[in-house]
Structure formats: structure tokens, C-alpha cells
Design goal:
By secondary structure, the chain is mostly beta strands. It has one domain: Alpha-Beta Plaits, CATH 3.30.70. It is 9% helix and 14% strand. The chain is built from two helices and four strands, in the order βαββαβ. A two-stranded antiparallel sheet has the order 1-4. A two-stranded antiparallel sheet has the order 2-3. A hairpin with a 2-residue loop joins β2 and β3.
């Protein structure tokens, strides 16, 4: 059977088999889920201004600032939620924040 949006509905599933909201059955990680579309502010990396101090890396709650070979790279926009913590700690104005 299909619902009004055309999605298939499995009518054999009972309410007892459905995961209750708010319960997590395995450890969570922002790495597994693309959550960047939640943000209202977009973060931009100004590579020329960055001194590679790495202060932004440990404060990012979503691991959206990749590091490769000891060098900080551009933001992972698939995971950045635009919280602004990295922007607040950057002493070199290497991060810009704009309304998305």
C-alpha cells in the first residue's frame, strides 16, 4: 500500500516494533549523518589568513574541520551546522560567517 506521497507503507509493522523517539541504540557520530543543511549561518575558510594554529579543530562539535598531513583544510559543509564556535576562537580572522 502507498500513502498520499506515493511512499510504500508496510502495514505488517506494529507500533511495538517502531523505535520510540529519543532513544539511540548505538553510539552517535556527526560523521555518519550529513547535517549541514540544518545551519542558518555559513562558515567560510580564508586560507590566506590562516596561520595553522589549529585552535578551531578541538572546539568544533561536529568534526567539520578536516586535517590532513598536519594541515587544517576547508570546512566540511556536509557536517558544519554553523554554530560559530570556530569563528569565535580564530585569532587571525581566517573564518567568516555569513547568513545562509
Amino acid at each position: 500500500m502507498r500513502n498520499k506521497d506515493g511512499r510504500i507503507i508496510d502495514e505488517t509493522i506494529t507500533w511495538q516494533e517502531i523505535t520510540p523517539g529519543g532513544i539511540v541504540y548505538e553510539s552517535g557520530s556527526a560523521e555518519k549523518f550529513k547535517t549541514g543543511d540544518w545551519r542558518t549561518m555559513k562558515v567560510t575558510f580564508i586560507e590566506d589568513a590562516c596561520k595553522q594554529c589549529m585552535l578551531c579543530i578541538p572546539v568544533c562539535p561536529d568534526s567539520a574541520i578536516p586535517v590532513k598531513d598536519g594541515k587544517r583544510l576547508d570546512f566540511d559543509q556536509d557536517h558544519c551546522k554553523g554554530c560559530g564556535v570556530c569563528y569565535a576562537v580564530c585569532p587571525f580572522n581566517a573564518i567568516e560567517f555569513t547568513k545562509e
